[in-house]
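To illustrate the input format used throughout this study, we show a single complete record. The first block contains the structure-token representation of the backbone; no residue identities are included at this stage. The design step must infer an amino acid for every position from geometry alone.
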């Protein structure tokens, strides 16, 4: 077990009261696990283990951001006098899993108790709980106060409700915490300005987009990059462009840049896409938030202040607040109140494999090529690229939702299971049958044409559903509606789309079904390049 993160780090105490577990997504110096830390008798335990990059095929950007941020955080703790027992990925004694590594630490340090802030992964929680039980050690599992609500709060909200819709939970939190509220009423007289936040860039494209706030790798990050490139050489993605914030100070710089440079136009263009433009007006804060380098309270305080000071319009600020206070808190509640059964849900009985080109970007569909290539290069894509490009195609194709989940968890730097799984299996793939989303989010290629310039440079025509130039999104859209027509008829929100389906005569339906079948067969020719189930 190595303890060599900083120069002359604090020595570990001879007798350990608390072994304080800090996971890779808990890099918060104010976390509940550290609140009563005693420098003379407690030890912080952190471990880099291969399992966290191999239980799903973690892309290089994702692994590197976790390892670099962990090392920087451990160094910062040691600089403040915290004894830290830190195991590096390349330590000879590394056992390869969090559970086995914790077992080693318990044997070596003989703590009286374990302390941990609640993790963001059901699998990790139960693995570490099992080790505590095995060693007959008390495990003090503390609430994660990084969030505005607790899982108990969400469970109380959900009790007795037939439907769990984001909007009501979001309003409850807005009122409780006084965010964007004036005298008990929502600012602007309405809760939701989503209708104002759906513009495309038009033919001229995005104008004067500020460059993203990126950081040249320091010595620690360079060491991590070299390690990841060696240890996980066969994993997807590359690290030539790595520039994510890996310290709290860097995360605060990204927050400041978003509030001052991007927030005013964030709302207007939050759903828009443009070929070759990865960053646009989005915040790029989800990675720092999910690693706990930023607290959502300081993020929303800065956003609301921008509105109050006249720097950003209400529609933009409300849309951003809804992402943080709404979706983020909502999906966490769904995850922890529904696991572990949630992971196995497959309401549409989708059974296709994920196409192998999801791991390479080598497809002739322009929108998918752009989104996947960008994802593999940066570990990032914004929410519409995820929901209405990569996610939509997988839904229409009929890919098993667990395979889609494994891909999203693997490739995005902000992916921690509590937030990624419900967003993917529930919102994107409708695998939960409507627990999260009120309907399947399906559209033809015309949606992508409206919100981007991808179709202009693509060999496929979004207006065509059959023939050599037919857009696969459009073909598969009509095929999806036809295949699931009986189920979708029970959903009033699908009435208009099914009405349009009813206009297709039998020959048209048969031609679409034949083209969809041929397209699916073409995608299934090669074996997936990586494991596609968790």
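Output of the design step:
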């Amino acid at each position: 077990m190595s303890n060599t993160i900083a120069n002359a780090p604090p020595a570990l105490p001879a007798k350990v009261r608390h072994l304080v577990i800090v996971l890779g997504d808990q890099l918060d110096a104010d976390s509940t696990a550290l609140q009563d830390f005693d420098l003379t008798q407690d030890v912080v335990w952190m471990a880099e283990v291969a399992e966290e990059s191999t239980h799903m095929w973690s892309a290089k950007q994702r692994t590197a951001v976790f390892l670099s941020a962990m090392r920087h955080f451990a160094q910062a703790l040691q600089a403040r006098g915290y004894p830290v027992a830190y195991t590096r990925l390349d330590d000879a004694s590394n056992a390869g899993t969090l559970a086995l590594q914790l077992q080693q630490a318990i044997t070596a340090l003989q703590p009286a108790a374990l302390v941990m802030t609640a993790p963001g992964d059901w699998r990790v929680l139960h693995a570490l709980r099992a080790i505590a039980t095995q060693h007959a050690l008390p495990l003090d599992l503390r609430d994660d106060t990084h969030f505005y609500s607790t899982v108990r709060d969400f469970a109380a909200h959900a009790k007795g409700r037939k439907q769990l819709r984001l909007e009501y939970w979001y309003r409850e939190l807005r009122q409780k915490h006084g965010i964007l509220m004036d005298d008990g009423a929502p600012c602007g007289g309405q809760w939701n300005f989503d209708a104002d936040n759906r513009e495309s860039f038009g033919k001229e494209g995005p104008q004067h987009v500020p460059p993203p706030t990126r950081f040249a790798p320091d010595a620690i990050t360079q060491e991590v990059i070299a390690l990841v490139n060696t240890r996980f050489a066969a994993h997807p993605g590359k690290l030539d462009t790595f520039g994510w914030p890996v310290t709290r100070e860097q995360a605060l710089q990204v927050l400041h840049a978003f509030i001052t440079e991007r927030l005013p136009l964030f709302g207007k263009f939050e759903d828009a896409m443009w070929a070759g433009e990865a960053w646009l007006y989005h915040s790029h804060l989800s990675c720092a938030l999910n690693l706990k380098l930023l607290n959502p309270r300081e993020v929303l305080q800065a956003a609301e202040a921008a509105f109050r000071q006249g720097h950003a319009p209400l529609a933009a600020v409300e849309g951003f607040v809804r992402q943080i206070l709404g979706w983020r808190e909502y999906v966490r509640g769904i995850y922890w109140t529904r696991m572990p059964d949630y992971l196995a849900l497959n309401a549409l009985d989708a059974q296709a494999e994920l196409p192998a080109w999801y791991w390479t970007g080598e497809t002739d569909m322009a929108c998918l090529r752009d989104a996947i290539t960008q994802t593999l290069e940066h570990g990032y894509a914004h929410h519409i690229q995820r929901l209405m490009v990569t996610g939509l195609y997988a839904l229409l194709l009929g890919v098993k939702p667990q395979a889609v989940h494994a891909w999203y968890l693997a490739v995005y730097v902000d992916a921690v299971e509590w937030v990624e799984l419900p967003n993917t299996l529930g919102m994107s793939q409708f695998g939960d049958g409507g627990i999260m989303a009120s309907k399947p989010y399906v559209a033809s290629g015309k949606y992508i044409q409206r919100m981007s310039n991808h179709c202009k440079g693509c060999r496929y025509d979004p207006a065509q559903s059959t023939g050599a130039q037919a857009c696969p999104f459009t073909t598969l859209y009509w095929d999806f509606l036809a295949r699931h027509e009986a189920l979708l008829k029970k959903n009033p929100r699908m009435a208009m789309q099914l009405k349009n389906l009813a206009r297709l005569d039998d020959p048209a339906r048969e031609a679409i079904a034949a083209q969809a079948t041929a397209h699916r067969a073409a995608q299934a020719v090669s074996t997936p390049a990586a494991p596609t189930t968790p």
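Structural context for interpreting the output: The chain has three domains: 18-142, 151-217+228-338, 356-523. The first helix runs from residue 51 to 54.
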